Amino acid sequence: MAVLSLRSLSFVCCLLLITNFTTQASADNSPQNFFYFCDDHNNGRGNYTVNSTYDTNLNTVLSTLTSNTEIDYGFYNFTYGENTDKVYAIGLCRGDVKPDECRNCLQHSRANLTQQLCRNRKEAIGWYEDEKCMLRYSDRSIFNLNEIGPAYFMWSMLNATQVDQFNKVVKDLLDGLKTKAKSGDSQSKYATASVSGPDNRTIYGLVQCTPNLSGPQCDDCLVQSIKEVSHCCNSRLGVRIVRPSCNLRFETASLFYGTPAYPPSPSPSPSPSQPLLMPPPSSTVTNNNSSGVKSNKATIIAIAIAVPVVVFFAVSLNPIPEKDPIPEKEEIEIDNSESLQFSINDIRNATDDFSDYNKIGEGGFGAVYKGRLSNGQEIAIKRLSGKTSQGDREFENEVRLLSKLQHRNLVRLLGFCVEGKERLLVYEFVINKSLDYFIFDQTKRAQLDWEKRYKIITGIARGILYLHQDSRLRIIHRDLKPSNILLDEEMNPKLSDFGLARLFDVDQTLGHTNRPFGTSGYMAPEYVNGKFSEKSDVFSFGVLVLEVISGQKNSGIWNGEKKEDLLSIAWRNWREGTAANIVDATLINGSQNEIVRCIHIGLLCVQENVAARPTMAFVVTVFNSHSQTLPVPLEPAYYDDSAQLPEFNSGATIEYTTRSTSGEEGQ
């Protein structure tokens, strides 16, 4: 979900979550700029079932709302149904959006909320494309209420230089717009204006309330938002505060909105006296347009701050072709008792100013430190070296993705810090370091008996399946390797390092990149050639399985005077019926059938033909059922170790040598 267009300033975002609401990033095939919140079923309303009365009523009321051509002022509020199956729906378009464009926007929002993002949830709200339109629905009355949450805030990363003067101009601008908007009628409460500010800047402003609010309700909602500007975003060159009942926005870049599409009518129009559809006699679709009272629904503030999107004006003038862009900026979710934002002083204190004593590792973009917060919580901090712009991209990508994912087999991101040149990621501290620390050390790997190794293998599989299928997002990790698998105190694996991860559309099967970043030995052959998919992660998983079983790295195994890769050795022994030869000698008490079955799975995952590799759903099913029949693996891909690919190097590639010609490459 993009925070802003390229024409806008770099922004950060925070979310205000109303009690019992959850929020996620929109799926990739939904609009690029779609903020949404789904009602949490824990509030007692729960989900509705497909083809239920509520489902039918929801479809009816939303169809009426999004297809209505009699309303030409951009505000829709309808009800349909009775008792607990009654549905309330509101649609509101920005004041400059034309009727046809408004209905189209609401149609897209409806599809995203009901079919993908908040499927089967009884209550949801979404804002589409620069707040072009808002759509919300619920099984409770949402009409004529001043509701200030759920909401999201965004603010520019840039500050005004003449702070006091700038803040006064902004305050006066917003106060004037508030006065104009609250005096609107039951069809439109919308106002825009621009004023001259310090440093020869023009400041553009926009405010809007849902038209069925009374004047005092609109005033109250906007007053709270205007006050919030001084709390969250004082002196920022741009701010957006978007709530269910009102929103405001100002920027020093033109808002590029046209004249109001819905000029105020001379007097408020009465509600239609007849239903717009002909429903069953017991229920009618009703257009509700009356004033009411302020909602007393409580809110809980949960600040979740996204990293800055480094998008400069020059980029929009001279875009660089890129087949594999970092996903657009999205909102970030975290538990409402915590904040993603850490100060540099907090982290310096936690790590004893990044002392070497607390340094526990070194990665492709900098060092990793152990730290302890003032409350005693142990944390791990990844400190980017700041030497490459690529590092900034990976940092930004990891915060955006990992903060929205929660699974026992994924490392938990606690927060981040962006101050000056510092780029820091703060994770839960995982006590047993990474898998490579054990598996490739002759002494330490003896601590991993077969039971522990099998738990690690199956845990990794479940973590990947969550990324590919079970989370609201579809994510391809693209850098699965032992150093990115952390082990907790019970040796449960946790996938980490999502700097290279990519979002996939629901129906997308293949991605393209002109920069195949990754680590030699774990990259699927098609990925080196610029194509990647879920099956690329499956390939990496297969390598991991064989490494865990053998205790050997995929590359650099000496067989007499010949240097081989693990895949070749495993395949040769499998073909000759001597698969047990690759098993780590320390695994003396493990189930031989289970070990050989895991070798079988590993070889299936590293097939050269993409279509021949199983999905992670199939792999997890196999682990859960020993009666599952497995196909016979073919010869795997292997690579020429003389052409090493440095980690995250944008230019080099690995030369894969094809030995089998079976089948076309699948997607």
TrEMBL record:
Domain Gnk2-homologous: 36-142, 148-255
Keywords noted in UniProt: ATP-binding, Glycoprotein, Kinase, Membrane, Nucleotide-binding, Phosphoprotein, Receptor, Repeat, Serine/threonine-protein kinase, Signal, Transferase, Transmembrane, Transmembrane helix
GO molecular function, one term: protein serine/threonine kinase activity
Binding annotation for ATP: 382
Keyword Signal: yes
Gene3D superfamilies: Gnk2 domain, C-X8-C-X2-C motif, Phosphorylase Kinase, domain 1, Transferase(Phosphotransferase) domain 1
Region listing for Disordered, in residue ranges: 262-291
Any single GO CC term annotated in Swiss-Prot or TrEMBL for this entry: membrane
Matches recorded under InterPro entries: GNK2, GNK2_sf, Kinase-like_dom_sf, Prot_kinase_dom, Protein_kinase_ATP_BS, Ser/Thr_kinase_AS
Secretion signal, residue range per the UniProt entry: 1-27
PANTHER family: CYSTEINE-RICH RECEPTOR-LIKE PROTEIN KINASE 27-RELATED, RECEPTOR-LIKE SERINE/THREONINE-PROTEIN KINASE SD1-8
UniProt-recorded name of the protein: Receptor-like protein kinase
